[in-house]
Amino acid sequence: KKIMLVSMKYILKHANEHNYAVMAVNSVNMEMARAVISAAAEKHSPIIINIGVGQMQKLAHPSEMVPMIKEMAENVDVPVALNLDHGSKFEDEVAAMRWGFTSVMIDASSKPFEENIEITKQVVDYAHKYGVVVEAELGTLAGIEDDVVVAAEDSSYTRPEEVEEFVRRTGCDSLAIAIGTSHGAFKFKPGTKPQLRFDVLRECEQKLPGFPIVLHGASSVPQEYVHMINAYGGAMKDAIGVPEDQLREAARSAVCKINIDSDLRLAMTGSVRKHLVECPADFDPRQYLKPARANIKELVRHKLVNVLGCSGKAL
pLDDT tens-digit profile of 52-76? Predict the structure, then answer.
């Protein structure tokens, strides 16, 4: 039985009702997407594939990536959604819908509150006419992801007193909030203890009962891959991520979508570096991409089972 790409709303509704979080994974190429979807199928878990605007502009055009992901989704028996990550312009959102994305994110979080509402509502009004769901963002995450660059001093926590009005006036289907996560592999200063603001999360939950909440910038930055990169010629000093126990706590709350990107990049880069150093005669990409794919797959399996609680939850 073939399953086409499904609506993210369908996936998040089930996650919200059963207290788990779906893993939303940025996949920048076919190897990553194959490993992620294969792991989800093995663990009978729903999965969301994120593709960022910067990736589409610099790496692979949607005309190449979308058909591949659709084909992969049709050959597994778990729900797969395809989401545009961090679109900032109305034109980007429309283009993604036309290419077959089942959901889009409009990130106007850097704008003033009223302007964020105006931009988000424009996207929602258009997307809903075509059955596409929309994720919005309120509060600003620090860090770097593709073309999204926010200095730590410019980041801000979501204000719980604004979330109900924002959702009501925009009509968005899910809301990304800022509670201390950040984009990239260097999320926290060395020597500090990473701590998410669960008080902000709880207040947002109370203001939006039953509404899907999203966490961006939630990579844990596995130190085994940081060490692997450094041991084989890399230079990643002080790369620190979000502790997995805090992500587990978030997944048991109204947070039902957790975005992970850097962890996969680390697994792929570490694996490739290690293989090329240990096997200097190899020049066939299939030789060094095989262990990279295997490590990404194992990382995703671990997250699905031990962190997000979504193993066995495919609808």
Answer: 887 766 667 778 889 999 999 999 9
The amino acid at 283 = F
> Which residues have C-beta within 8 Å of that of residue 140, sequence separation ≥ 6?
109, 110, 150, 154, 155, 156, 178
CA dist 199 and 94 (Å) reads: 36
Asked if residues 282 and 276 have their Cβ atoms less than 8 Å apart, the reply is yes
Q: Note the pLDDT tens digit of each residue in 101-133.
A: 999 999 999 899 999 999 999 999 999 999 999
- Amino acid code (one letter) for 50: N
| CA dist list (Å): 139 to 8, 124, 215, 294, 309 | 22, 19, 11, 36, 26
Measured in Å, how far apart are the chain's first and last C-alpha atoms?
14
- Rounded Cα distance between 71 and 208, Å, is 36
From 248, 246, 170, select the one nearest 208 (Cα to Cα). 170
Exposure class string for 87-96: b at 16+ Cβ within 10 A, else e: bbeeebbbbb
Q: Is the dihedral of CA 139, 145, 146, 148 positive or negative?
A: positive
* Structure tokens that stand for 16 in this block: 């919200």
| Three-state helix/strand/coil letters over 249-311 | HHHCCCEEEEEECHHHHHHHHHHHHHHHHHCCCCCCHHHHHHHHHHHHHHHHHHHHHHHCCCC
Contacts of 173 (CB under 8 A, 6+ apart): 8, 9, 12, 103, 124, 133, 134, 135, 212
Who's near 286: CB < 8 A, 6+ residues apart?
none
DSSP state of 101: -
**Among all residues, which ones are annotated catalytic?**
85
Length of the chain, in residues: 315
